[in-house]
């Protein structure tokens, strides 16, 4: 399945079935402080597991960082 993550096209085989599966593969257990939008719609963390992904979805991952 082809997905675009932060403006970079990626191919996944096997395809992740949900947003949560994708995030586990991409971020491991580092999902605290992460905001996600799929096709320009913010997806609250409590529904990541039930959010299906489709080919050509546009995903934006934003992570909080510390610094000054």
TrEMBL record:
InterPro entries for the chain: Beta-grasp_dom_sf (IPR012675), Mopterin_synth/thiamin_S_b (IPR016155), Thi_S (IPR010035), ThiS/MoaD-like (IPR003749)
SUPFAM superfamilies: MoaD/ThiS (SSF54285)
Source domain of life: Bacteria
Database matches in Gene3D superfamilies: 3.10.20.30
Transmembrane spans: none
This protein's name: Sulfur carrier protein ThiS
